[in-house]
Amino acid sequence: MQRALYRIAQEALTNAAKHAPGALVRVGVECRRDSVAITVSNTAPTRSPAFDLPGGGNGLIGLRERMALLGGTFTAGADGDGYTVSATIPHHTSTAE
């Protein structure tokens, strides 16, 4: 779970830096009884990108797949003039004795 939370924050922050230079970015983590939720949102960019950074275009796809494997949920998309990435990862309790 920790690695998944880290990767979500890392990918969302990288995307904000690449696609929304100068935007305000907020990261929120909420520990719930049965899950952990993370949200990374940014406002509209305040300037144009200085240069085009290469990317594989698979970051959000990979996060969506990772959340599916963990039984979680994942959304990413435009939010007004900005962009929001959200994921919820359930706590898994071991049934082994």
TrEMBL record:
The keyword Zinc does not apply. Pfam families: HATPase_c. Residues 2-91 form the Histidine kinase/HSP90-like ATPase domain. Keywords: Kinase, Transferase, Two-component regulatory system. Gene3D superfamilies: Histidine kinase-like ATPase, C-terminal domain. The keyword Transferase applies. It catalyses: ATP + protein L-histidine = ADP + protein N-phospho-L-histidine. SUPFAM superfamilies: ATPase domain of HSP90 chaperone/DNA topoisomerase II/histidine kinase. This is histidine kinase.
